[in-house]
Specification:
The protein is of the alpha/beta class and about 325 residues long. Helix content is about 45%, strand content about 15%. The protein is globular and about 50 Å long. About 45% of the residues are buried.
Length: about 325
């Protein structure tokens, strides 16, 4: 990989799979930094139509960054980098193309509880992980309004891509324990999404009973991580695991009453369900088995209709 140059030296050929708010923000910043960016959106989607119309990612302010547009990854193209921003539960659909692709490197930019499976499928010699720390809104015309806060750094498991993204105006940091970080972040994100979904459903915040259930689910998720033989990382996760559940419940109850939090995370119902399923499935490998932890997670799994699970609603 020494042959890959960074933005300050020469432009790269980059494909971004996933044209939602995060993928569009990455594509915009990387294209504006001078890279040759191809944005890949789902076939027959409204987003693909918008990108074909504009041949660019456009901000709500009217600023634009020209990009190439495609509905699938060109497996013969020797991209320097493919950035995947689809949620983990959707990545299996593109995994075969990533495996066959002649791309030099694949950077998976989403939360997953099973990073090793994905890394081994693509090849550890050309695969790394990251986690976005940017927020964005997208209007009905596909214009985006990104929010990039310098103190919130996007994480990368490879120093080269941390430097590349930073040079493109996306503050980034190298995380040497990226796989472990993702695994330990999964229970926390699932809990936050679950309480946001509950709060969004009620329109003004989750109930105290729902907050207590989600706190138990969070503790169960951390217990599964430990039961699989991993330590909680970083230290903030270990601290959260040791804090009394009623304090975590109070924090979740308060967070569910913040409109911006509900709006940004309350749409992650399907991702939340998938993350919980992945953690519960992993209990089969835990020693000793952790049925109580799995049940605590299943109790906060949002229903497909929206809201928390049936058992959680009964306690409410």
């Amino acid at each position: 990989m020494k042959n890959i140059a960074f933005a300050a030296k020469s432009p790269l050929s980059i494909a971004v799979i996933g044209a939602g708010k995060i993928g569009s923000t990455f594509a915009y910043q990387l294209a504006r930094a001078g890279h040759d960016v191809t944005v890949i959106a789902r076939a027959d989607s409204l987003r693909l139509q918008q990108l074909h119309r504009d041949q660019a990612v456009i901000l709500k302010t009217g600023e634009r960054a020209e990009v190439r547009v495609a509905d699938k990854l060109d497996e013969e193209a020797a991209y320097n980098l493919v950035v995947v921003t689809t949620p983990a539960h959707q990545v299996d659909a593109v995994l075969p193309a990533l495996q066959r692709s002649k791309a030099q490197w694949v950077q998976l930019m989403f939360l997953t509880f099973e990073p090793e499976r994905l890394r081994d499928a693509i090849g550890s010699q050309r695969c790394s992980f990251g986690m976005p720390s940017v927020m964005a809104m997208m209007d009905s015309e596909g214009r985006i309004k990104p929010t990039i806060v310098g103190s919130l750094k996007t994480k990368h498991g490879d120093q080269r891509w941390a430097e590349l993204f930073s040079s493109a105006g996306i503050p980034s940091a190298f995380e040497p324990e990226m796989a472990l970080w993702l695994r330990c972040e999964t229970p926390f994100t699932a809990a936050i999404q679950s309480i946001a979904v509950a709060g969004q459903r009620r329109g003004g915040g989750a109930t105290w009973a729902e907050a207590k259930a989600v706190a138990r689910g969070l503790h169960g998720g951390f217990a599964i991580v430990k039961g699989l033989g991993y330590h909680l990382y970083p230290s903030t996760k270990s601290t959260m695991y040791s804090v009394p559940n009623f304090l975590i419940a109070f924090l979740l109850w308060v967070l569910s009453r913040i409109p911006a939090m509900r709006e940004n995370l309350g749409t992650g119902l399907n991702e939340c369900r998938a993350l919980i399923d992945a953690m519960v499935a992993a209990t089969a490998k835990a020693n000793p088995p952790l049925p109580a932890a799995a049940n605590a997670l299943l109790a906060i799994k949002p229903t497909e209709e929206s809201g928390t699970s049936t058992r959680s609603n009964e306690r409410a």
